């Protein structure tokens, strides 16, 4: 028995002679002799051991400064068994660097698992589908089919800006596209700017006179002559009509009804008096409203269309005027 600062430590045996197999009890008592430890294992008393801080519940999260017991292993530069038979307890083994020895158990691959052969096939397929920028297309080139969503009435397929989306096609399979403002297109009455870019302008060569529109208000082509110059006045290849109109001291239209699709008008004064030609307000004098004067036998040619009415007037009544129209 020995005495320490905390009390007395006693070691007792259950017999006066200590033999193999006898039980030894350990006790810690206070200064008054009061027993401090009283743990029993079966019918025997044993020394209490405090493991608080070393034991943790399953699934308990780790925290800083947690206590634990250090695990040791045996270094074996050449791995060899540490136990004599199957089922014996054993120490762990590490190599010279402290890496733990482990055993990898091989097993058959599951059905459908990747093998070297299937990986090689996959690699070849991906290679065939991959194309280098600017490569020329060749016959039987492989690729992925691109699908789109048919939308007879175009509507959004995504919830917000930046989302991935399918392409949309109409009922015939034509891809919907959005045409932004093209270079060279300008709004009517917009102000011209320096370095503005425009589109190349083309016309249609028309050697003969032919209309390319079916009705007023239709879009029409620009026509050129055989050498490429723009046709601004068409050749009158259709109908021509001559007539004599009698005019007097009030303005009268020359002729009274214009020829349809008229392109050219000729007027000749076949009377003995001066003819004054102009608009519906023409006067037979040299005043501000006086018209173009045509003497006896004189004539004038006017590129006047069917909507452009020409009027004549004289200072006396009964004057014969010859009119010749071309369309």
What does this 3D model show about the protein?
This protein is mainly beta and 327 residues long. Among the domains are: 2-46, no CATH class; 240-326, Jelly Rolls (Sandwich). Helix content is 4%, strand content 23%. It contains one helix and 19 strands. The chain has one helix at residues 116-129; strands spanning 2-4, 7-13, 24-29, 39-41, 44-46, 73-75, 92-94, 148-150, 167-169, 204-205, 223-224, 240-247, 252-253, 264-269, 275-278, 292-294, 299-302, 311-313, 319-326. Strands 12-19-14-17 form a four-stranded antiparallel β-sheet, with no helix packed on it. The N and C termini lie far apart (146 Å).
Write a brief caption for the model.
This protein has 327 residues and is mainly beta. The protein has one helix at 116-129, and strands spanning 2-4, 7-13, 24-29, 39-41, 44-46, 73-75, 92-94, 148-150, 167-169, 204-205, 223-224, 240-247, 252-253, 264-269, 275-278, 292-294, 299-302, 311-313, 319-326.
Q: Can you give the helix content as a percent range?
A: under 10%
Profile the largest sheet.
4 strands, antiparallel
Structural class: mainly beta
- Kindly report the CATH topology of the domain at 240-326: Jelly Rolls
The succession of helices and strands, N to C, reads EEEEEEEHEEEEEEEEEEEE
Calculate the terminal CA-CA distance, rounded to whole Å.
146 Å
